[in-house]
Amino acid sequence: MSQRFLYHLAFWTLYVLYKSFLNIDSEHLNLGQFALLIKIQLVFIPLKMLLVYSLFYVTNQYFRKHWSISKTTFSVCLLFITAVFGIILLNQLVVIGWILGEKISITENITSIQSIGYWFFILAFVSGIAVSIKLVRYSIRQKLAEQELLQKKLELELQFLKAQSNPHFLFNTLNNIYGLARKNSDKTADVVMKLSNLLRYMLYETAQQSIEIEKEIQMINDYIELEKLRYSNKLKVTFDHSVDSSQKRITPLLLLPFVENAFKHGPGESRFESVINIHLTLKEEQLFFEIKNSVENQSEPDHQSKIGLNNIKRQLELIYPNHQLSIDQQPDWFCVRLKINLTDGKI
Questions:
Q1: How many CB atoms are located within 10 Å of the residue 253 CB?
Q2: In a 3-state reduction of DSSP, which class is residue 254?
Q3: Is the pLDDT of residue 298 over 80?
Q4: Are 100 and 25 in contact (CB under 8 A)?
C-alpha cells in the first residue's frame, strides 16, 4: 500500500469524523447518534471525493500550462454547479428519504438560494482544504526541485573549475621540466619522478570530493621540493604546519593554487633570492592558511594567473561559502590569508 494512498485515506477519515462531530447534538449525545452521523457523511463522501479529485485534475492542467485561466475557471464553476445539485439530490433522496425516513421536497431545495448556498459552502470547505494541501505540497516539491537543480548546476560548475585547475597546474610544472631539460640538468630525472607522484595524486585523489588534510599537506611538500630542485639556492622556503587531527577532510587541490602562484610571482619573476613563507594551522575544525612571498616588481598579474586565482576563489565560494579570504599586496611582498571552518563545507 503506497504512502500516498495512506495520506489520502487518513485525510478523508479525519474529515468524516470531524464533520460528524460538528453535527452532534450535545443534548442527545450517544454512540448511536454518532454512528448515524458517520453514516450520513459516508453518503456524501463519494461525491465530495469526485469533486476534489476533479479539481486536482483541473489545477494540474493549469499549472502544466495545458489549460488557460478562462478554461480553468469555467471548469471549476461547472464542477461546483454540478456538485451542488448532485449533493442536494443525495441529501433529499438518500439521507432524508431513506436514512431518516422523512418527507422529500426536492423541488423546494433545488430552487432555494439558502439551500444552494449552504451546500456550496460545505463543498467549498472540503475542496478548499484539500486543494490548499495539494498546493502547499506542490510548492514544496517545486522548491525541492529548484534546489536540486541548483545543486546539480553548482556541482557541474565545480567539476568544470577543477578540470580547469588540473591542466593549469600540469602546464606550469611541465614548463619547469622543460627549463631543466634545456640545461641538461641532473635534476631532470628527480623532477619527472616527483611530477609522476603529483599526477598520481591528481588522477586518483582529486576525483574524490574530500581528502584527509595530511594528503593535501604532503602534496604541498612535494610541490615545494619540486620547485626547490628548479630554483636551488635562489629560493628560501619555510612551510610550518600544525594540525590537531590529520584525518580532518578538505577539498583536494584547494590550497596548492596559492602555493603555485607564490612560486610563479616570487622566484619565477626575480633575479635575486626569493623568500616564501607558508603557515598552516588546523584546530577544532578551524583552518588558517597563510602564504607570503617576496616580489621584485609589482607588474600586473598575467591572464593565466588571474584565471587561476579567480578559479580558486569561485571554488571557495561554492564549497566554503563562509570562508574568509584576504589578499594583501605590498611593494616588496605579496600575502594571502585564508580562514575556513571545515564544518561549513559543502562536501
A1: 21
A2: coil
A3: no
A4: no
